[in-house]
Design brief:
By secondary structure, this protein is an alpha+beta fold. About 55% of the residues lie in helices and about 15% in strands. Helix 2 runs parallel beside helix 4, helix 3 runs antiparallel to helix 4 and helix 5 runs parallel beside helix 8.
């Protein structure tokens, strides 16, 4: 989500947790309407109790039972109402009503018998104790419900942020959780650089983008980033702001700032504790995500360093051997060329040519695999006839291919592939040259093609010794050269098959090895097929 995008988080996300059934436990504030409702309830309960007791008196009921009924109704009021003040008031009023209705002289607040004073005192004390104990139990139950709700919310928040793949996603999930819990608008500043722009807004309803004094909000958010402390409304820092700003912070690192709309009502103690806990969960998740990214970067750096070390070690060894051969042969031709017969000179020229061609192939492979690894080479695909690509690759293969029996076995239908012809030629040349290199003269080398659904499969087969089972899982790894280690290999840098894999995967295909029964190797790879269209 880009900066400035408004999200209606309240309308779309509330179904994920049952906050409607528990949201009342978040608010310690009691609205005026709720106060009036509880007062009317208390008065109604005392009135109902008085009616029942009056009816009980008409039936010549025992006076002590009337006292018990008033105590019972005080208990009910204590259980139903939110504040212990209602219990105390109900206890006092029950004594006054009892004195007014049920003690002689009736309908006055006087009592002829002094013994009523003790009864009033005991009744008041029992009613008070009952009411206060009921209110305390209610408070404990409410606190337990709040604690359970808080744990469930934190647990769900933890689960949600663990599924996030990026730090921005963690911050957005946190903002949505706050909207659903508080039913307030939330502003999100992802980082300090986003303060100058428009924050991401998450709205609690469909009222549209709320109006804020942008400059005041930016100043408050900037101060929160700078000092890592709460700013905005209700604080000493930019108190004229519309929102209170809290940081997503762990230790001294501030990952972001949340602005909570408090224009109507400020956060109470419980709400603020919930917000702090949720932001703490988000900060831990962001810290873990950052650690994961740092570990991954460190792993990649170590891998790249190892790659560079292997590359330098391999190049320094593999380049030195052919260059020494070329320079030595050239020196021999310069100094003693006239004394050599034609056959010897031709053999030396051939050695120089083969060494130089090997160096050319090495440089080409190095450049290609480096560009593919760095995503610097874009695959420019076009429709190409597979038979023509194979024929072109044949012309670029090693001259020693003439010492083997080379053949092609192509599909009866015309195969048109979607490919970068130059790169696929390079794949075929590497595979054929490998077959030439690792099979004795006179061996069979064959290229086969066939259609496999919407892909074209190309196979390079030989009947040489094949690849050992221990080497098969690693033959496409960079710098792997079979039984020969990199340091001991004079002509096996281990880039050819790795480059083939990169090229084939860049085309959307795959490459793999199979054993050629009874002996030998088969390297197969696939490329996308292109339909042959004939204009009528």
């Amino acid at each position: 989500m880009e900066n400035g995008q408004v999200r209606n988080a309240g309308a779309k996300e509330r179904e994920k947790i049952p906050v409607e059934t528990a949201i009342s436990s978040i608010n310690d504030r009691v609205s005026t309407r709720e106060r009036i409702r509880e007062i009317l309830f208390s008065a109604g309960m005392l009135g109902l109790c008085s009616v029942i007791c009056w009816w009980f008196k008409l039936l010549n009921g025992v006076e002590s039972n009337i006292v018990v009924l008033y105590i019972f109704f005080v208990f009910l009021i204590s259980v139903r109402t939110a504040n212990w003040i209602y219990s105390v008031c109900a206890a006092g009023l029950s004594v006054v009503i009892y004195n007014f209705l049920f003690t002689a002289p009736e309908f006055t607040l006087h009592a002829y018998d002094n013994r009523y004073t003790v009864s009033f005192g005991v009744m008041l004390l029992i009613a008070l104790l009952t009411g206060v104990m009921a209110a305390r139990l209610r408070t404990q139950a409410r606190n337990s419900a709040r604690m359970a709700f808080r744990v469930s919310v934190l647990y769900e928040t933890n689960q949600l942020v663990e599924k996030c793949r990026s730090q921005d996603e963690i911050k957005e999930i946190t903002a949505k959780q706050l909207v659903r819990l508080l039913h307030r608008n939330v502003l999100l500043y992802r980082d300090r650089g986003s303060v100058d722009g428009k924050p991401a807004m998450f709205l609690s309803d469909n009222s549209g983008e709320p109006g804020f004094a942008a400059e005041q909000e930016k100043v408050a958010a900037e101060l929160a980033f700078e000092h890592g402390e709460k700013t905005g409304r209700g604080t000493n820092s930019v108190p004229e702001a519309s929102c209170v700003y809290l940081t997503i912070r762990l230790n001294q690192v501030v990952y972001g700032v949340m602005g909570i709309d408090v224009r109507e009502n400020e956060l109470d103690t419980y709400e603020e504790s919930m917000v702090t806990a949720i932001l703490g969960e988000a900060a831990i998740a962001l810290e873990n995500k950052r650690n994961e990214q740092e570990k991954e970067q460190a792993r990649l750096m170590a891998k790249n360093e190892q790659l560079r070390a292997n590359l330098l070690r391999s190049i320094s060894h593999d380049l030195r051997t052919p260059l020494t051969s070329i320079s030595g042969t050239a020196s021999l031709l310069l100094s003693d060329g006239d004394r050599l017969d034609d056959a010897s000179r031709k053999n030396l020229y051939s050695n120089i040519y083969e060494d130089s061609m090997w160096l050319e192939d090495l440089v080409e492979n190095l450049l290609s695999i480096t560009r593919l690894k760095d995503d610097q080479t874009r695959i420019h695909t076009s429709a190409e006839f597979v038979s023509e690509v194979i024929e072109e690759a044949r012309r670029h293969c090693s001259r020693k291919l003439s010492e083997h029996r080379f053949s092609t076995e192509q599909s009866s239908e015309v195969l048109l592939g979607k490919m970068d012809a130059h790169l696929i030629i390079q794949v075929l040349v590497n595979l054929v040259n490998n077959a030439v290199k690792y099979t004795p003269p006179g061996s069979d080398i064959r290229i086969c093609t066939e259609r496999k659904g919407d892909m074209i499969q190309i196979s390079v087969k030989d009947n040489g010794a094949g690849v050992s089972e221990t080497d098969r899982p690693h033959i496409f790894d960079m710098f792997y050269s079979g039984k020969k280690t990199v340091a001991d290999s004079s002509r096996s840098l281990g880039l050819g098959l790795a480059l083939c894999r990169e090229i084939v995967q860049a085309h959307g295909g795959k490459i793999w090895y199979e054993e050629n029964v009874p002996h030998g190797s088969i390297f197969r790879f696939t490329i996308p097929a292109e339909e042959v269209r004939t204009d009528v």
